[in-house]
Every structure is written in structure tokens, then in C-alpha cells.
Design brief:
By secondary structure, the chain is an alpha/beta fold. Helices cover 40% and strands 22% of the residues. Strands 1, 2, 3, 4, 5 and 6 form a 6-stranded parallel beta sheet that branches.
Amino acid sequence: MKGLVVYDSSYCNTKQVAEAISDSLTGTGIEVDTFYVKKVGKLKAEEYDFLVVGSPTKFGTMSFTIKRFLGKVKSKEWANKPFAAFDTENPENIERQEGSAAEKIAEQLKEKQMRLLQPVLKAVVIGWKGPMQEGEIDRANEYAKELAAHLKK
């Protein structure tokens, strides 16, 4: 089994979550390619069994580069493949439920007939630039372990 983790990151917070997810999946025996969104080459769905996408939440939605990447995910190639989505956002945004990059990513991938394996992960960042709230990397690791369990069913 092989997965693709793609992320965007402005201040390295989302990158840290992506790396934690990738490392935890690898630790369960799942092969993973992890790319910063601007480094993703030609997307070949036949090379991957699942997709994980993450973005910082900016103004209630995902980054432009992630949105552009999702445009390259073709329904006919990725249909029925499982996915997970995550984001980083400040606690005030989560509390007010003002919009989430992860939720928007999930909506778009569901529209492409992909299967959401578990609820999105919202990692908390203090302030605009961070740092991440204590314990968020541990939460990302647990999220990835749960994802691995779903993938291996």
C-alpha cells in the first residue's frame, strides 16, 4: 500500500503536521510519498492507493496552491480511493466555526468521488504564525495511526 501526502505551509506549522502524519503512517508499514504542494510533479493516481491533503486555513479556506493542486486530482482516476484532510488554524477560528481548509478540501475530494476515511484533523496554531499548540503533533500522530487502521481494513 502506498499513499501520497501533499501539503502547503506558510510558517512550517502545516509542514510539521504533514511530516508527523507521514512518519506515523510509515511507522505502521505503509509506504508514503510526502510533497510540499509546489514540488508535486505529474500526478499519477495509479501509483497511489490513498491521498492525504493539508493546508493552513487562510480566511476560512485552503491556500490557493492547494486549491490549484486539487484541480489536478481527476475524478475518473481517483474515484473510490480513500483520502484524509487536515489543516492548521487558530483556536478562535475553530471556536467560531468560520470555515476550515480541511473541510473545504474534504468537500472537493468528495465531489471527485473519493472516500473520506475519518473526520478531518484541525491542528491548533497559536496566533497567525504559530507556534503550534502543545500536543498537536501528538494528535497528528494519533490521527495517522487511526488512518492506518482504516486503510488496513
